Amino acid sequence: MGKGGNVDMKWIRLKYKKWFNISKDGLVKNNQIVIAVLGICSALAVTNRVENAIAMGLGVTFVVMASSMTVSLIRNLIPSRIRMVTYMVIISSLVIMVQMFLEAYFFDIAKALGAYVGLIITNCIVMGRAEAFAVKNPVRYTLIDGFASGMGYTYVLILVALVREILAFGTILNVQVMPDAWPKWVVMAMAPGGFFVLGVLIWIIRELSKNFEVEMK
Amino acid sequence: MKHNLRLIIFVGIMGLITSFLLAGMDALTKERILANQEAELKTTIMKAYDISYTLANLHEVFDESVKIMTHDGLSFYIDESTGYVSYVFEGSGVWGPIIGVITLQSDFETIASIVVLQQEETPGLGGIVAEAKYLSNFNGIKMVPSLEINKDARGAPNEVNAISGATRTSKAFEELLNESYARHKAAWLILNG
Amino acid sequence: MDRIIEIIVATILNHNIALAYILGMCPLIAISTNVRNAKGMGLAVVFVVTLTGIINWPIYMLLKSTGTSYLSLLVFIITIAATVQFLEMFLDKFFPKLYNAFGIFLPLITVNCVVLAVSLFFANRNYNFAETTAFSFGSAVGWMLAIILVAGIREKMAKNSDTPRGLAGKGIVFIILGILSLAFIGFTGLANI
Questions:
Q1: Whether residue A217 has pLDDT greater than 50
Q2: Residue A48 pLDDT grade (very low, low, confident, very high; cuts 50, 70, 90)
């Protein structure tokens, strides 16, 4: 009490704010990669270099926000039986339109992102947020959830990519940080490397946050 | 039955709306995209021939400096001063098409340069196939008897090192380069009697 | 025929869609808790992927001939969803035992990225009908092989191993997959796709 009194009250009030809890969920508590274990295909494919991780993370964040917003807008019209297909159609149409727009007006960026488009469309996180949140919540909360989930995804991607790029190429963001004599452990840039680094990262984060799964018998 | 009907109607409407949006976007952007691609092709060829241009006059400079010969749908872009020839190669990579421009010296056997314009390979791994640093390994390499991209290239005149860790992309790249070379060589021989 | 065999061998071993292309991870990680579920999911995937590959090929040819291939992604998604839906209704009516055996797996396949990826791959590589069928079947069998292998290991580990709690559940699957994909790299160069 005493000196810290005012700060404590602000902190307690914050903890009850909905947007704060949604953000915390997306970034940490229900982190899409580490806790929910979604979006793995892309998390393994693009984390061989930090620049790819950043590009993919931002791309996914944008798509999650846009598609979730659309789903949230029409959430009362979607028949329950075909909601999965509806999400897929919305997401892929959105991504293709954005790609066409970029190819017409921002040609260089479109080329740089070309390889990611397929990975973003089939990303389980985009579908996952639509199903778990957007279809049941109003637009303003959906946007926060989309942003938080996307950012949670992005920082995990960057962490994995940092390890893989250093081990496989000795660089970060294409800048040589390791001496020339550094042995390039190329398998780290391939599939097995992705699996191992991500597995170890999940291990570390879960141990630190004491967020364990119940052991399956 | 009524429930199923409602499902079908919803899917139908959704399909129509999205097809309409996509077709609309396609119509709006198609010309610009084609123009961008044409400009990219021309500037790539002019860069290979060291021809200077500005964004404003690139089409005129191209028409003046580069000679085009076509046969059977295949186009050749020739630099009259050096006799170098370029053509567009296209084929399947691992994840998507790989499209680019290859420039050969006047003997139509030795590679002067390769530029990859479009690819969808794994970023950072197979994607290296588009990087200028890797492609510079092809300069001076011969396409005959056939181009080889091998894991431990021993320096033969027709051999290039594969991308370590990207065996499939390297193999696909080797195949598509050889295949398009065979087709273009046949047409080139006909054009030059 | 040689080509068919080559494609099937390639898709199961050195071009395994789960262990080499890292696709379909979400359902693989979720359903590999025991071999029985893995077999169920695997068989359902083989069924659906082969069927949708066969259905999507003529549709893609049609789209290509009318110059609207930008719609192919959208159309593939809809045909896949429709195929799974009809399959469910068909099995429920004529083979109810089989339908119950598949259980929840059938609707889950609609969102398995392997199904869509296979269609996108054959479109990109311009396979003919026979190649497409072999490719779809082989890729799905390869995926089934991967999920059964992982499930078998997880089953044994659940009984006999002292898995660290941070890796319990889904975490350990990554280590297992890492070792498996490393092992499968040994098949490189075996067959061409």
A1: no
A2: confident
C64 touches chain B (CB under 8 A): no
Q: Do B22 and C189 make contact, defined as CB atoms within 8 angstroms?
A: no
Among chain C residues, CA nearest to B98:
C124
Q: For residues B115 and B101, is the Cβ–Cβ distance under 8 A?
A: yes
pTM listed for this prediction:
0.83
Cβ atoms of A177 and A162 within 8 Å: the answer is no
Residue of B nearest to A87 (CA): B14
Record: contact A48-B123, CB cut-off 8 A: yes
What residue in C sits closest to A38 (Cα-Cα)? C26
Is the pLDDT at C144 greater than 50, yes or no? yes
Q: Residue B1: pLDDT above 70?
A: no
Find chains touching chain C: ≥3 CB pairs under 8 Å. A, B
Residue A6, C-beta contacts closer than 8 angstroms, at least 6 positions apart: none
Taking only residues 150 to 169 of chain B, the set having a beta carbon closer than 8 angstroms to any beta carbon of chain A reads 164-165
pLDDT at A216: 42
Is B32 within 8 Å of A48 when comparing Cβ atoms? no
CB-based contact, B11 to chain A, within 8 Å: yes
Residue of A nearest to C172 (CA): A199
Complex prediction ipTM: 0.86
- Nearest CB among C71, C125, C188 relative to B92 is that of C125
| C-beta atoms of C120 and A204 within 8 A | no
**What's the mean pLDDT when you consider all of chain A?**
84
Residue ranges of alpha helices (H) inside chain A are 5-15, 18-24, 40-45, 50-73, 83-105, 107-113, 116-121, 124-132, 139-169, 191-209
What phi and psi values does residue A21 have, to the nearest 5 degrees? -70, -35
**pLDDT score of B159:** 93
B155 falls in which pLDDT band (50, 70, 90)?
confident
Question: Residue A17: pLDDT above 90?
Answer: no
* Pairwise CB contact (< 8 Å): C81 & A88: yes
Residue C37, SS3? Answer: helix
Å between C162 CA and nearest CA of chain B:
33
| Chain B residues within an 8 Å CB radius of A81 | 3, 7
In chain A, what are the domain boundaries?
32-162
B143-153 residue pLDDT tens: 989 999 998 88
Residue B116's DSSP bridge partners are B100
Three-state DSSP state, A37: coil
In DSSP notation, A145-200 reads HHHHHHHHHHHHHHHHHHHHHHHHHSEETTEE-S-TT----GGGGSHHHHHHHHHH
A205-213 — which CB contacts under 8 Å span 24+ positions?
A: A205/A31, A205/A34, A206/A34, A206/A35, A206/C165, A206/C166, A206/C167, A206/C171, A207/C164, A207/C165, A207/C166, A209/A28, A211/A29, A211/A35, A212/C165, A212/C166, A212/C168, A212/C169, A213/C168, A213/C169, A213/C170, A213/C171
